[in-house]
Amino acid sequence: MGLFAAKPIAKGEVIWKYDPLIDQIYTKSKFKKLIDSLDPVVLKQLLSATYKRNETYFYLADNARFINHLEIGYNIFLIDDYTEVAIQDIGEGEEILENYYLSYDDDDFFMLEMKKIDIMNILLLNCRKKRAHAPDKNIFTQLPN
Fold first, then answer.
1. Which is it for the CA torsion 15, 11, 5, 105, positive or negative?
2. pLDDT in tens, 76-111
């Protein structure tokens, strides 16, 4: 999934603005009470549409919840807790992308998930490098009987 521009968007144009009729803001204590009361399926849905910024939790019920991450080459940026703007011209049909690392708190759910993925990728890469340099690439021949 992702969010794609329905029309050309000019640099500086507002992409998303907090709307209290649609989006919800939670303090840390209220958010903790909320997640403690939810079953795992609903919790996963809530976390997939929530971001943490400046110790506040923002639940997005609009299409902004579909904005994906790109570390280099992102085209939007949060200028404050309530407004996201295009930092370059975005063409019709182009995916709208932000850099989560620059937008959210380090202990945000997405940040923690991305760190787990990064750690797994590093471990897999190191494992592949070790196997590539091992004298015998068949690890089963090295196992005791």
1. negative
2. 998 988 999 999 999 999 999 988 777 666 665 555
